[in-house]
Amino acid sequence: MWIKLLPFFLLVVLSGCATTKAIVHTDKAPPASASIHSEQVRTDCINGRRLICGKVLKSVPDGLVVESGYTNLAREPLTRSWLVPSTVTASRNPVDLELNEPGTPCIGLVFLTNIPRRPKVKIYDYVIITGYPAGQYVYTPIPNVEKTIRKFSASLDAAIKLNLQAKENN
């Protein structure tokens, strides 16, 4: 008799296992508000992007201090590379103004981070690259003098991370 009931018993046990749902809680999934916040930071970075076209004044391990506003660099064949040698003739127009629109040329002193590794940058070379806002940088042009300038990243992902880290620290 026991042998006749064994298939029925196995069917009941296995069907119960098949319908059991396990609820697993993980800490890896970000809350909905965090993903909305990071998407807002991404949108702000894209809307705040600028064309950094200027002369490299200083090179530090984290990036470059650039005097941006050399808008006449944005011409062929110079735009084929993000880095232009210092032998090129370029000048700033003193009456140019920076517009508050995505992709417009940046005017003034800025810090550019997350630049491509190649080619190697030398002082007074020119850069032509899109930069995404990434906070501020304290620049020391001469000893005992500090100036806070805008910081841009040549990488959108890095700019998002830098902005999220800055908001966490505040």
Label the structural class.
alpha+beta
Number of helices: 3
Strands, count: 6
- Helical content (DSSP H or I, runs of 4+): 25-40%
Sheet with most strands: strand arrangement = 1-2-4-6-5
State the order of secondary-structure elements, H for helix, E for strand.
HHEEEEEEH
Largest sheet: 5 strands, mixed, barrel
Sequence stretches where pLDDT stays below 50 over 5 or more residues: 5-26
Number of domains: 1
Name the shape in a single word.
globular
Beta percentage is: 25-35%
The Rg value, from CA coordinates, equals 27 Å
Our measurement of the CA-to-CA distance between the termini, rounded to an integer number of angstroms, reads: 74 Å
* Mean pLDDT across every amino acid position: 84
Oligomeric state of this protein? single chain
Key terms for this structure?
170 residues, alpha+beta
Provide an overview of this structure:
The structure is a single chain. The protein is of the alpha+beta class. It has one domain. The chain contains 3 helices and 6 strands. A 5-stranded mixed barrel has the order 1-2-4-6-5. α2 crosses α3. The longest helix is centred in the first third of the chain and has 18 residues. About 13% of the residues have low confidence.
Strands, helices and their partners?
Blueprint: H1 2-19, H2 32-47, E1 50-60, E2 63-68, E3 83-84, E4 108-113, E5 126-142, E6 145-153, H3 156-169
Helix pairs in contact: 2-3
